[in-house]
Amino acid sequence: MEIENVLPTEIEKRSFEIITEELEQEGIVLPEIQAPITKRCIHTSADFDYAKNLVYSEHAVEKALEAIRGGASIVTDTQMGRSGINKKRLAQYGGQVYCFMSDEDVAQAAKKNGTTRAVASMKKACELNEKLIFAIGNAPTALIHLYELIKDGRIRPELVIGVPVGFVNVVQSKELILTLEDTPYIVARGRKGGSNIAACICNALIYML
Amino acid sequence: MEIENVLPTEIEKRSFEIITEELEQEGIVLPEIQAPITKRCIHTSADFDYAKNLVYSEHAVEKALEAIRGGASIVTDTQMGRSGINKKRLAQYGGQVYCFMSDEDVAQAAKKNGTTRAVASMKKACELNEKLIFAIGNAPTALIHLYELIKDGRIRPELVIGVPVGFVNVVQSKELILTLEDTPYIVARGRKGGSNIAACICNALIYML
Q: Which residue intervals define the domain Cobalamin biosynthesis precorrin-8X methylmutase CobH/CbiC in the entry (chains A, B) (predicted)?
């Protein structure tokens, strides 16, 4: 297998062409507005399962784009997710990216209440007085607590990106989000996801603007 | 499907138990010294493909552990990978984590030479005068250039973690590393991988010490 001679600037374009071709070969047709997001998840993971496991609530993408355009910030549950989001591009619309997981007060609150730091960091996010998108790529406990905060009317996110990965309560946490009726969401059903997928969905949205 | 009542501190342990059970059900037996690394990759991605696609050169794990114990540093090709590596634990053995991708001189060198920044950042790593582990989770161009630098005798890594993800020259770049005879490697054969997998392999090694 020879090294393909592709210009550095062309690599991403060529990758998306290959993804598009292979989806067509599989007979998979993605809704047009979701396609850039789903394809970027496949691009990030080389895993075509995302063509099937991503669930978008009605008009989730349109609402998310409007929120970002209006200056929404992003709260994520890992420093790795925060690191992967294009903060410079997001800042052009007025938003920033928060991750409270390493904060001293979050560690203390978690210890005191016997929760995960992820839960404590969701509580802390409730204190932010701005439009928020939640991008949860790691901790199902964060997603479960976010669900409770939404149900209690304590927070009203512009979008919930629910893509924690793993084996304990991950599937359950996502199914909870799928029951929400007034909250826009993008959820990777099943076990798969990750901080990389959370960041990639945020970036796909930002790049659509 | 009910939320399982698992203590925060027990979630990772329970996850690894589930992974172990499911590997057994599939009849997959991992070599003992590789198991903590392969299982952590599955834990990070919920993707059991890693049980089959990870290729370890002979004694790669033993050599890597010795290198980290001896103070080796890690060079990675994304800030996200750098962010995911447990730098505090690595520092206990004397190593640190480098990522040169955002450096101004790297951007200039890449522009001047018409390469990717990933290639320029590998060149910069050659100037480091210490034991190095390379953890490449994103850029096949980085891995290809690293291969060339090794073949030219300009660098002699303690370990190459070759897990870029994607569709253009990714498979090829990994096959090149698999031809190396005197360089320890851990490679995810095929298209899959990522910054998360690169970080996770580093952490698995650190946690084995």
A: 10-208
